[in-house]
């Protein structure tokens, strides 16, 4: 039978492990970002302790309490695994796999902009970004199902940009630059490792293809499969 004392001891044990991970993890102590990550560890610690005590205060059957304890234990183990540093050699392989996918989704142009053609519901939506690039690589959670399918590691590569704009078909011109990225474009690329092979997992809204070349606006039909009002620079 699961007792209140047993539940408390279990949650305190996992909370201490998580807190210790926050103290000992090799975060760079010189940056605000790293200090915030460390504080996040400690905040989650107290949340786990709080949930542990909450379970003891509710009149739940022993089986239900035991299930809640197991869920919190698994969540803690997964968070600890995600915070393990990624070896540089593995990181490079993940970045190469992510870049291969990015090169299929967008066009990096000579003028420094990045473009894509989004095909959605029979329409072509032309998009441009400034400073579109791959960002931080994070570990993902490897589930029991993943392990049975031969997946040993999961990673998530963030995609960042400074501004974006869309071609305005009605007015035959580019729209205003927006600080928010194009919301239908992925914000990250998921990479999985299986038997030493890295492959991507992405769910796209419609399809993304090569973007338009460096372009400008004129008052005539663009031609060359370009929207009306657009021409090459």
Task: Provide structural commentary.
It is a single chain. By secondary structure, this protein is α+β, with helices and mostly antiparallel strands. The protein folds into two domains: 4-82; 88-232, no CATH class. Helices cover 39% and strands 28% of the residues. It is built from five helices and twelve strands. It has helices at 4-24, 32-57, 62-82, 88-105, 144-148, and strands at 107-108, 113-120, 123-130, 133-139, 151-160, 163-168, 173-174, 188-194, 197-201, 207-210, 215-217, 230-232. The strands form three sheets. Strands 1, 2, 3, 6, 7 and 10 form a six-stranded antiparallel beta sheet that branches. Strands 4-5-8-9 form a four-stranded antiparallel beta sheet. A two-stranded antiparallel sheet has the order 11-12. The chain is elongated, with a radius of gyration of 24 Å. Residues 23-34 and 217-223 have low confidence and may be disordered.
């Amino acid at each position: 039978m699961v007792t209140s004392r047993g539940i408390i001891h279990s949650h305190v044990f996992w909370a201490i492990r998580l807190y210790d991970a926050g103290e000992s993890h090799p975060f760079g102590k010189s940056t605000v970002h790293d200090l915030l990550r460390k504080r996040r560890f400690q905040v989650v610690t107290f949340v786990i302790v709080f949930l542990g005590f909450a379970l003891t205060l509710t009149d739940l059957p022993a089986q239900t309490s035991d299930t809640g304890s197991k869920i919190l234990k698994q969540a803690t183990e997964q968070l600890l695994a995600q915070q393990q540093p990624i070896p540089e050699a593995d990181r490079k392989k993940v970045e190469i796999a992510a870049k291969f996918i990015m090169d299929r989704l967008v066009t990096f142009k000579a003028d420094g902009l990045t473009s894509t053609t989004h095909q959605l519901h029979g329409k072509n939506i032309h998009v441009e970004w400034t400073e579109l690039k791959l960002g931080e690589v994070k570990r993902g959670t490897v589930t029991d199902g993943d392990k049975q399918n031969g997946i040993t590691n999961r990673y998530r590569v963030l995609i960042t940009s400074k501004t974006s704009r869309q071609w305005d078909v009605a007015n035959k011109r580019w729209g205003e630059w927006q600080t928010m990225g194009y919301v239908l474009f992925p914000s990250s690329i998921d990479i999985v490792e299986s038997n030493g092979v890295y492959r991507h997992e992405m769910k796209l809204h419609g399809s993304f293809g090569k973007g338009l070349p460096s372009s400008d606006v004129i008052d005539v039909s663009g031609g060359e499969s370009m929207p009306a009002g657009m021409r090459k620079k």
